[in-house]
Amino acid sequence: MRVLMFGWEFPPHISGGLGTACYGMTKGLANNDVDVLFVMPTASGDEDQSAVSIIDASDVAVSETCTSVDEFLGKVQFLRVGSNIMPYISPEDYSLLSEDEKKFQRKEFFTHFNSKYKFSGKYGTNLMEEVSRYAMVGGAIASANQFDVIHAHDWLTYLAGIAAKRISGKPLVVHVHATEFDRTGENYNTIVYDIEQRGMREADRVITVSDWTRNIVINKYGIDPAKVVTVHNAVDFSGRSGVEVNRTVKEKVVTFLGRVTSQKGPEYFIEAAKKVLDRCDNVRFVMAGSGDLLNRSVRRVAQLGIADKFHFTGFLRGADVQKMFAYSDVYVMPSVSEPFGISPLEAMISNVPTIISKQSGVAEVLKYAIKVDFWDIDALGDAIYSLVNRPAIAKMAGEKGYEEVSLIKWNNAAKKIKDVYEDAVNAAHADQK
What we know:
The protein has 15 helices and 13 strands. It is α/β, with parallel strands linked by helices.
């Protein structure tokens, strides 16, 4: 089986969990005899292609005989979008990206027809423009390649998936790693919501990363439950052994690692830290990440008078993430709405006792992570205090957690994804008869 897969990022150049998930998933699919053509907006050339064949959208010329983007989008009947949105970018990175991306907006769009367009592949000011252009390239790639099914990851690639489906006639599977409701709550961006809903409606099958997300897809987007399938994420643990660090602090280290945004619940981590520090002083707290709530978080830590016990590292990636887990004695993910949450698995494979919110998809597959409601800072504080001050509990949580996540493999998840592909292909063949 051959799959045309649309993504937005791929290791080693990633901004979050989506690229990491795509990497592990494609390796698992290769082990299940699935050949993957992986399309991304721009490739650097250092991506691991042992399990995929990467297509750089910036190297693909669009051959549509159109005079404008509106005419092309009209042909495939989906929404023309031109507004700016920055769902995954921190304020401190905004000004830099804005300057970088001005070069991509200096010429009118029609000059790029029958030519290549250099994508930035970032989450910057002209993201919607790039999403539209990516759809055009998706159609061109679909017309030039042979494949059995299309797989599009998250809303950024849904329009490309739709274009590929309409041009090739092949079934479309969309993969929901997060929704606009997870990122923003009820104050959602209507343009992003419309693209998400359109992608889910036009898809032959919808894969969600948890039952938590499946319920959102069905209830918030009105998608037929019969075509929505949950396949829980996994983690690629290769290359994670042997990380050694030289700890220079005697206190226990409690870590938050993720985007510092309302979705991830950083304020609850800070309030719980205060409650723990009121009871003991043998602990330090680390917030690793960046996001729109970072400055407010720094101010709140100062207001609470715990700045001497609280550290901000900024965004971490790659080996630095593994070192952070190696430094940690407790890992906390207090997310308000988490479709899945790979970071707890990464912590637990490092033998780190882990606390997660009940409002997360990963809570569906973990027995040996401590689970609390994200808003219950008293329960969160008590859980942290127990793991920091009761070595026997921490030891058991670390050992059992490691054993548990060692069984959560991408090969198994990929087998389920392959089953979804085959179901979509068989259904498409039945409809054609």
